[in-house]
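Standup notes
- DV: blocked on the single-chain target, sequence here:
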Amino acid sequence: MKRQLGIYLHIPFCVRKCRYCDFLSFPADADIRERYVQRLILEIRSFAQHSAEIFRDTGNESDLPDSADSTKPGRPEWVVPSIFIGGGTPSVLSADQIRRILDAVRSSFTVEEDAEVTMECNPGTDTDFGALLDAGINRISLGIQSDDNRMLALLGRIHTWEEAVMTVDKVRRAGFTNLNTDLIFSLPGQTLQQWRQTLQRTVSVLNPEHISAYSLIIEEGTPFYDLYHAEDERRAQGGAVCLLPDEDTEREMYWETERFLDKMGYERYEISNYARRGYRSVHNTGYWTRREYAGFGIGAASQIGSFRYKNTDDLETYLNKGEQRIPAVRGEKLFFPVLEEKILLSAEDARSEAMFLGLRMKEGVNLEYFAARYGESAQKVWPGLLQKLEAQGLLCHEKNRIRLTDRGTDLSNYVFSMFLQ
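- DV (later): unblocked, structure below
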């Protein structure tokens, strides 16, 4: 029986790291980028042809789908409904490099004819969108972030709003009909009115099919973290006032996003994601519903059955280690990257993930499906907890579903943590 497998391809390169970014990304020259592409292609092909080798020492080979082709031992019968090329800034690669990577995926896996194939792009890079469309990309995700050039400069972005508008025009003229734009709110000094303007201009000028809107999080290890910790110290000593919006303003920005986008024909289907009818992200929905996925490239994670692993995040290790030869396949050169993490998930882990990931979706968790897939009802797994959260006004039970209330959405991290205890 065929099983669905989402594929994620990590391209860690970027022109310049943004001040708020804690993703695995960095600049690299053309030679390093090409070596990485070659390694990525080898990893894809090795995994597809000999996945069983990865699982051999886990005692968990049964998690792999059976191969329907006895001439290709170890090649599972997966079907791929979505491919996501993320980063970093994947658009720093050439269209030919992207095509070669996608050709490796298609020759290694059964990719559905109408599979969603997304690529993240930066408006500040010179991108041949027509060539990307020809290579098989059918969904573009643009990191717009703001319509305010002062805010963009503060964030460390390499583009202006005007360049973003021109990039969207290029995307449309190339023939793309599925566009996502990423936006960030609760920026330093940002007011509710300024955020409303960002939403209005995004819809009226860019007219994307999908919008991802995130609140700025100050992550440790970023320039913003250093800046605002120093700012907090100065404020404690009676110095400058921190310009980040307060929590009440941040939450008002969040709910204004849903109110405005709902009027414009966008449905909030996940905590931070909004789509016009028929344009929900297939790939990201797979994560929230615990579909199996394989990640390729440095730092990429995979989940197959109850097995999860994460590739090394060290570029030098990825480029220079991990090759091996398997005599049973006549010395064919294979590449399995050095793993940073390898975990066998318990049944309890899987149930907890299913609940807190499913609750990210606005429609929540189907209790009948949960019981059928995980072998026990949610009420039995967490006796009393669902009723407690419902009594607190954080969850609501409608028909055979449970979902977050508005108050539960505001306190979602607390709700999710309750399923991890």
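- Follow-up: The mean pLDDT is 86.
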